[in-house]
Amino acid sequence: MVIKDLQKIVRGSANLGPKHQRHSVTSTEAFSNLTRLKYLYLNNNAISVISSGAFRGLTSLETLKLHYNGITALSSDDFSGLSSLRNLYLYNNKISTLPSGIFSGLNSLTSLQLHNNDITTLSSDDFNGLFSLEELNLLWLNWLRELYINNNNITTLSSDDFNGLSRLKYLDLYNNKISTLPSGIFSGLNSLISLSLSNNKITTLSSDDFNGLFSLQYLYLENNKISTLPSGIFSGLNSLISLLLYSNNITTLSSDDFNGLFSLEELYLYSNTISTLPSGIFSGLNWLKRLQLHNNDITTLSSDAFNRLSSLKYLDLYNNKISTLPSGIVSGLNSLISLSLSNNKITTLSSDDFNGLFSLQYLYLENNKISTLPSGIFSGLNSLTSLLLYSNNITTLSSDDFNGLFSLEELYLYSNTISTLPSGIFSGLNWLKRLQLHNNDITTLSSDAFNGSDIFVSLHGNPWACDCRLRGLRQWIEDNSKRINITLNGLTCQTPQAYAGLDFMDISEENMTHTSPEFPELIRWVDADEESDIFNPIQYDGYRSQLY
């Protein structure tokens, strides 16, 4: 039988298997008239190239066998129009790459056999449009280095799905619908560096799920429904650098959960429902640089929670329910660059809470319930560049509260209830570039409050007393308008009553000079015709002035 004879077959199957003549290339449109053909077996031939349009017209074809040939390359349109195809066998060839879109349109395909080829990289795009795929056989793709089958609808995996992929380095199963991992599924993946199982529906893990992955450096388990970590699950992962467990349902941790992760540098546990951290849980993680615990339900911390994490640079504890910091909690964190404690329930701080944080550059304490700053609390933080204290209950500040913060560039004190700023409170902050004091209860400021050029200051939302005490500040703003950035909108006078609701920059220095806290109703009247550059209060509706 020759290929042209197949044009006469209306239904049934055509077999050009081992008993038949071998063909090096299938003819263009060789099967174009076989519109009812369901089964086409071209396996065990010597086909090396599939001519463009070779399978055009086979709209009823359900099974196509091309295995055990010498096919080296495929074209993106080789299987175009095979909308009824359910089974495609391409194993035991010499295929090295899959062109983009090669399987697009194969909406009915349930089984794809690609094992025993020379494929080195597979991506999720390679399987785009395979909405019905149930079985993907990649067994013995010996040269496969990268396998990306993310963003599909895979629900189950078999224990032998990745058998023989001993050289595989990257396996991405992200964003599927996997709920469980069969025992031994990753067995033999000795070269695996990165494994992504994130954005699935995994609820439980077994202690041996990752056994033998000695080369694994990156493990992505975030955005699943994992509630507990079985004992010893990560033991043996001596090369692991990054472990992502955020956005799961983890409620409790055990002290030995991360034992043996000697190389770990990044641990992401945020957005779970963890309430406590067992003593010594992070001990042994000597290379840990980033620890993210935010968006949990942590209420208390033990003093040794972060002991011996001498390499830690970033510690995120924001959005928890922490009310106090135990003494010595940050002891030994000599490398810490960023500490975030914002959005908790902290009411009080101790003077030694941040002792020894010589490398700290960013300290986030905003959105708590802090009312006072104990003396010397920030002393020794010579590297600090950003200090966030906004949205607390701070009412008073002391002149030495920010002493020693020689590197400070940003200080956020807005949305508190601060009423006065002691003289010289910001002296020594020579590198300060941003100072936010808006939405407090500040009524007056002296002209020497800010000692620096190129500074951004926000002062709006305070109940300003526009009397002689603000004269110096007003003059300072005018004199330095070209080298500072100050928000003038919203600098509204609350007193004296005569100026209530007016912007204090609209009130002349002359009028401020003759208005005092003791006699707020007395101001000097200056006629606009006499000196037009001086504020004329009669310009404002409803205003009544008294002559001084």
Give a quick precis of the structure.
The protein has 548 residues and is mainly β. The chain has 2 helices and 26 strands. It has a domain of 142 residues: Alpha-Beta Horseshoe (Leucine-rich repeat, LRR (right-handed beta-alpha superhelix)), CATH 3.80.10.
Strand and helix map with partners:
Blueprint: E1 13-15, E2 25-26, E3 39-41, E4 49-50, E5 63-65, E6 87-89, E7 111-113, E8 121-122, E9 135-137, E10 146-148, E11 170-172, E12 194-196, E13 218-220, E14 242-244, E15 266-268, E16 290-292, E17 314-316, E18 338-340, E19 362-364, E20 386-388, E21 410-412, E22 434-436, E23 456-458, E24 464-465, H1 471-479, E25 485-487, E26 493-495, H2 509-513
Parallel strand pairs: 1-3, 2-4, 3-5, 5-6, 6-7, 7-9, 8-10, 10-11, 11-12, 12-13, 13-14, 14-15, 15-16, 16-17, 17-18, 18-19, 19-20, 20-21, 21-22, 22-23, 23-25, 24-26
